Amino acid sequence: MEFTLIPDLVPQNRHAVIKVYVSRKWIFRGAMDNGPIHHIDLVLIDKEGNGISAEIPGNLAEEKGSIIKENEIYEISRFTISSARQMFKPVHIDKMIHFTYHTIIKASLDSPSTFPRYVYHLTPLHQIESYIQKNEYFLDVLGVITQVSALKPVRTQTQESSNVIKEIIIKDINDVTMRLTLWAERAKAFKLDDVYNPLEQKPIVTLFVGCLAKNFQGAYLNGGTTCRWYFNPDIKEAAPYYQRFGSQKIKLQIPSEQEQQLSVAKETHVEHKTLHELLTLDPYAFPI
Length: 288
Hints:
Blueprint: E1 17-28, E2 39-45, E3 51-57, H1 61-65, E4 73-77, E5 80-83, E6 95-98, E7 104-107, E8 139-148, E9 152-156, E10 163-171, E11 177-183, H2 184-189, E12 205-215, E13 219-223, E14 228-231, H3 239-245, H4 257-265, E15 269-271, H5 275-279
Parallel strand pairs: 3-6, 9-15, 11-13
Antiparallel strand pairs: 1-2, 1-4, 2-3, 4-7, 5-6, 8-10, 8-12, 9-10, 10-11, 12-13, 12-14
């Protein structure tokens, strides 16, 4: 079967069939942690490394969304193509895919290793501040991890229950540093056990995708449900990092499981916001 590449997709072609790798998948519930599913978002990549975002509407979340899993390859047909949304775009492309009741999803026998793993558009760390409150695109960054905090409990007035965050400090090739805050399940999922040896202390070059620029005690990156990371990625932009930091040692204080539990058990901090601040909140600022 002949498959259409992502750049060749047009709204007029309703018979296109694509074979794609599911690089990212997340659920969007609005600003409430336990709200109804508005839609499921996907980032799909074809065999040539072209990426596109896709959306499964809330009313098809169970029927269609349950079929698709992250890091797997699928053949997909009977979908529609439209212009990309105006805000919160995870991929730099002017179109997107919409799943419908008629969309057919078939698991492929191809190995995921035969497809590119990720699609990204890097933003230099020194430019992050200029993207605060500019949410047309999610931001992707590259850096070496220099600090990792334990899980910390936190609650804002927009959340009914407390949540957890994990703060990470990265630096780029020019030693510009940036704080990245992971929320909820993303914070819990971030582990370095398989990539960091305390005896060797080898630097970990990391590609973070799906972040937003925020301002709280200075500019920082916010990593909610859209955020993913790739340790020591095999990409051309990482080559200078491996060359510069490859022979260096970076000592990271990795919190133990017991320290994580003790940290989370501490009294929850409530972040107070004015009415104006609440009205200007965007729904992607908080985890789902």
